[in-house]
Structure formats: C-alpha cells, structure tokens
Design brief:
The protein is α+β, with helices and mostly antiparallel strands. Helix content is about 35%, strand content about 25%. It is built from 8 helices and 12 strands. It has helices at about 5-10, 25-35, 65-75, 80-95, 100-115, 130-135, 180-185, 225-235, and strands at about 15-20, 40, 115-120, 140-145, 160, 165, 185-190, 195-200, 205-210, 215-220, 245-250, 260. The strands form 4 sheets. The chain has a 5-stranded mixed beta sheet with strand order 1-4-10-11-12, sandwiched between helices. A 3-stranded antiparallel beta sheet has the order 3-8-5. Helix 8 links the parallel strand 10 (about 215-220) and strand 11 (about 245-250). Helix 3 (about 65-75) crosses helix 4. The mean pLDDT is about 90.
C-alpha cells in the first residue's frame, strides 16, 4: 500500500505529546470535558499569540505550464463549468502576475487557513518557559497524549504537522498542493524554537473535536498547582474507562532544571 503524506508524518510522531494548560475559569471546564468526555477545543490560528503564525507569504514564480495546470485543477475541484474554464483560467493566470492580484490570492489563502483548527502540542513536559507562559505560571497542568497510530483511525480529518523554526520565511510555492502549503506554513520564528511544537491540524473546521478516550494518558501537576485543583482532577479521572497516570513537576537538586516525578 502506498503511503500517504499523512501516514508518513504519523510515523515520525513522538510516542507522547503534551499540552500545557491553565486551570482558571473556563480552562478548568474544558479540562473536565477532556477527562470525562474526551473532547478538546481546536482553535483557529487567528487566536494565537504570534501574529505571523500561518501568515507566510507565497512565491508566485513558476513556468506557465505549472501555473495553468494548477488553475485547471482548481477549476475542476470548484466545479467551474467546462465552457467557462478557459476564460477563468486566463483571468487567474493574469491575477498571479500583478502585485494586487498576488496580495488578493494570499489574503484568500490566509482566510482559508483560519478555517482549520490547530491543537498545539509539544514534545516536552518539563520546559520552564512553557510552564510559565502557558500553564498560569506553574499553577496549571500538562496533559499527556498518546500518539499511537490507532488513536488516529477515527480522525481522518486530522493532519499532524511538525513545526519548523527559522530566521527567514521559507519559500512556499503558491502552486503546491494544499497539504504541502499547510505543512510549510507551520514554520515559525527561531525565537519560538524552545517550544518544540507539533500540531494536530483539523482540516476545514475549528471548535470542539472528540478524541479516542485512550488518547489522553496522563496529567502532570505544576510546582504551584493548587491542591483543590489536583483533587478535583483526580475525582474526574475516576469517571473514565481508561485510567490516567499522574505526575508532578519538581526542580532537580542544585540546578534550575525541572523534572517529572510520579504523583
């Protein structure tokens, strides 16, 4: 069987990925929904704190054959009547040749990107900066997710993306496939490299997504997680069919590094 791009990425996924989360107000509500009902929120990229996230401009240079082939395929996918295609393709090719047209096409792609839900995860559960930024200054938790292949069998609309980091924008051809563009626009500034981010991209839809209950496998409490929060989370975990493991962050002796111990 020929491997799809999705299968190739799934094979490279770490065995476990983590989500840093606060526990204040509504955040605790969605942690409860995740633990009990296996539902989690996939936000749009426009909700992210990085204004350049998923906003990388395109390279429009290509030979005429590639450009016309791209727009011919676009017309087919968008059910443009056959007798209108030649005129439409000519108009779109001309649009690719002007600054105003390229800007319009790029903005249209950005709008399409906003329709994808993106769950940001990381390969580390003991990152000092991540606990400070995304887990309410160590008052929150880290959620551990199993990335086993079987957990994606019911999630055909989910594409894993490994985030890359660079000082410069990557060169992304406008005429590449949508999946290729989606993967490459997962490039972020080098200053974010400490996040070691992986993403689960929900194609064409944001909002609440159900996961396999076996996907959530553990919860790590922070250095400042309130005992009442910890107790509540443990109560919710007893309502699950699949048990969770619990960990706690502590600092290693005589240094600033963090480590996860059993809790």
């Amino acid at each position: 069987m020929k491997k799809t791009p999705r299968h190739a990425v799934l094979e490279r996924l770490p065995g476990v990925l983590y989500k840093y989360a606060g526990v204040d107000g509504i955040r605790l509500d969605w942690i409860r929904d995740l633990i009990i009902s296996s539902k989690i929120y996939f936000p749009s990229s426009r909700e992210f704190n990085d204004p350049l996230d998923c906003r990388i401009p395109f390279d429009f240079s290509a030979n005429s054959l590639k450009i016309e082939t791209y727009w011919n395929q676009w017309c087919r996918e968008n059910n443009i009547p056959r007798d209108e295609r030649k005129k439409r393709i000519k108009s779109l090719v001309l649009k690719c040749q002007t600054d105003a047209g390229r800007k319009e096409l790029t903005e249209g792609h950005f709008i399409n990107m906003d329709a994808h839900g993106i769950l940001s995860l990381t390969s580390e559960a003991n990152n000092m900066q991540m606990w400070s930024y995304y887990a309410e200054s160590h008052k929150g938790v880290v959620l551990a997710f199993s990335m086993k292949f079987e957990n994606f069998l019911d999630l055909e609309n989910i594409l894993p993306v490994e985030v890359k980091y660079s000082h410069d924008f990557p060169v992304i051809s406008f005429y590449d496939s949508n999946l290729s563009k989606l993967a490459e626009t997962g490039t972020k500034a080098k200053s974010w490299e400490h996040e070691k981010e992986w993403r689960l991209v929900r194609i064409g839809k944001t909002g609440i997504q159900g996961l396999r209950p076996s996907m959530l496998i553990g919860i790590v409490f922070g250095l400042r997680t309130d005992r009442s929060i910890e107790d509540q989370i443990r109560v919710w975990s007893k309502l699950r069919k699949y048990p969770l493991t619990f960990g706690r962050i502590q600092h290693k002796p005589n240094c600033f590094d963090l480590e996860v111990i059993s809790a």
